[in-house]
Write a structure and sequence with these properties.
The structure holds two protein chains of two kinds. Chain A is globular, with a radius of gyration of 19 Å. A four-stranded mixed sheet of chain A has the order 2-1-4-6, with no helix packed on it. A four-stranded mixed sheet of chain A has the order 3-8-7-5, with no helix packed on it. Chain A is α/β, with parallel strands linked by helices. Chain A is built from two helices and eight strands. Helices cover 21% and strands 31% of the residues of chain A. By secondary structure, chain B is an alpha/beta fold. Chain B contains seven helices and 13 strands. In chain B, strands 1, 2, 3, 4, 5, 12 and 13 form a seven-stranded mixed sheet that branches. In chain B, strands 6-7-8-9-11-10 form a six-stranded mixed sheet. In chain B, a hairpin with a 2-residue loop joins strand 6 and strand 7. In chain B, helix 3 packs parallel to helix 4. The radius of gyration of chain B is 18 Å and the shape is globular. The chains are: A alpha/beta, B alpha/beta. Chains A and B meet through strand 7 of A and loops of B.
């Protein structure tokens, strides 16, 4: 979605007949293209990627299982708990309070991860 | 792979076909089911390639049973799109054994996602097996979403706690343990305090000469903790079994046959009837291993166990579904 915004800005820049992009516009482009906080955690090869993810308060994190084997996403402190996720299934949780949230796969407990909410 | 590594014995302490270093070689048996022949205290195990050497005297005993494991009904990924077909092939193999097994042990992961229809399909397929009694312990895939409630309703009648129990067959004492519940972050399989107490009490009054067969899903020894292939408190459980001359531990979970002898205890893991998993540490993760379709049945299997009273080993013979 952010990418389409930046293209729109570029299109406007070109459509207004400005041959070169001004410094201001470059900044707009840069900030528009700056990656938002990763809000997806990919489950693959029996691991969470990224294993540690930092996000602002209010972020919704989505876990997606890309493995051939079902996994779960379970907060160590009981804050959130997914149903079992088969291949390509997702689980989302919105973090409304700052803090560190360790979690693991309750089927394969060697799989652990952490969400840091700031 | 199995063809390259012969079952040569480096040092055969018990004259039973297995030496201590045989553990590593046993890994080369991956996928060959196992015939277990117990004689007098130590598990005797023959890989499929040694079956012709096995005299009928050794192959027969007072008690003969089969272990199957990890049928993962519902799994449909490329590693095996037809797990029902391979379970049926396992049943055919069981029905073709020269000595009809008295019963079967299923060491868990009956289903892939704990769905009722997955359990139903397995029950239906196993009905065509000659042995009518099946003793189950749950795998982690059988207790998803409901803390094992459905498993207990289906298979846990008369069991204690999360589904542990024991029974006697022809002088041997069988103990089914559950080590897939309440797993902790970063940890391994776990038995838990309540089950350990029950176990201690269960074996307290048994004679030392009673052959013990323990079966559970996750290995009760450290196969490869990095992949969670072990049980946190298995040492505690095994300490209660020290007094017995013959202890055989049968597990599943790792989808390959492995064997180890430690003192009075012989550990054995069975092949899956569904899909193989890589050897410990030989892949990025323990996920399903894809093999060419024509080779699949070479890496799936059943385990035939044969107890001969008065002899010193439990014969475990793995055989593939090929």
């Amino acid at each position: 979605m952010r990418r389409s915004v930046s293209i729109a800005v570029l299109t406007v820049a070109l459509a207004t007949g400005v041959g070169t992009i001004t410094v201001d516009q470059k900044n707009i482009l840069a900030s528009a293209q700056q990656k938002p906080e990763t809000t997806e955690v990919k489950i693959d090869n029996f691991s969470f990627g990224p294993a540690t993810l930092t996000a602002p308060v209010g972020t919704t994190i989505t876990w997606i299982n890309r493995d051939d084997i079902p996994h779960t996403v379970v907060s160590t402190d009981g804050v959130f708990k997914s149903k079992v996720l088969d291949t390509d299934e997702k689980f989302s949780f919105t973090f409304s309070k700052s803090g560190t949230y360790p979690y693991f796969c309750s089927i394969h407990p060697k799989m652990t991860g952490k969400i840091i909410v700031q | 792979m199995a063809g390259k590594l012969k079952d040569e014995i480096l040092y055969d302490h018990n004259h039973d076909g297995i030496d201590r270093r045989g553990f590593l070689k046993c890994m080369a048996w991956a996928g060959t089911g196992a015939l277990c022949v117990m004689s007098g205290g130590v598990l005797k195990s023959y890989s499929l390639s040694r079956l012709p050497e096995l005299s009928s005297k050794n192959a027969m005993g007072e008690l003969n049973f089969v272990q199957i494991s990890d049928s993962h009904m519902g799994f449909n990924k490329p590693a095996n799109p037809d797990v029902a077909g391979t379970l049926k092939a396992a049943v055919d193999k069981i029905n073709a054994l020269s000595v009809a097994p008295e019963f079967m042990l299923h060491t868990g992961d009956i289903s892939h996602l704990s769905k009722p229809e997955e359990f139903d399909t397995v029950d239906q397929i196993l009905k065509s097996a000659r042995p009518k009694d099946v003793f189950y312990v749950p795998g982690e895939h059988d207790v998803l979403n409901d803390d094992g409630k459905q498993f207990l309703e289906r298979y846990g009648k008369g069991s204690k706690g999360a589904g542990w129990y024991s029974f006697d067959k022809k002088g041997a004492h069988f103990i089914g343990l559950v080590n897939v519940m309440n797993l902790k972050a970063g940890g391994l399989g776990t038995l838990g305090h309540e089950q350990l107490e029950w176990l201690e009490d269960d074996v307290k009054h048994l004679k030392h000469s009673t052959p013990i067969v323990v079966f559970a899903h996750i290995p009760l020894w450290s196969v490869y903790p990095e992949w969670g292939w072990g049980t946190e408190d298995s040492a505690q459980a095994l300490s209660y079994l020290k007094k017995f001359g013959s202890v055989t531990v049968l597990n599943g979970h790792i989808h390959q046959t492995l064997q180890k002898i430690e003192g009075n205890v012989t550990f054995h893991t069975a092949a899956s009837t569904a899909f193989p998993q890589p050897e410990p540490g030989k892949a990025a993760s323990p996920g399903p291993m894809k093999v060419p379709a024509e080779q699949l049945k070479n890496v799936l299997g059943i385990t035939d166990v044969n107890y001969v009273q008065g002899q010193h080993a439990l014969a475990v013979v793995d055989s593939t579904l090929a």
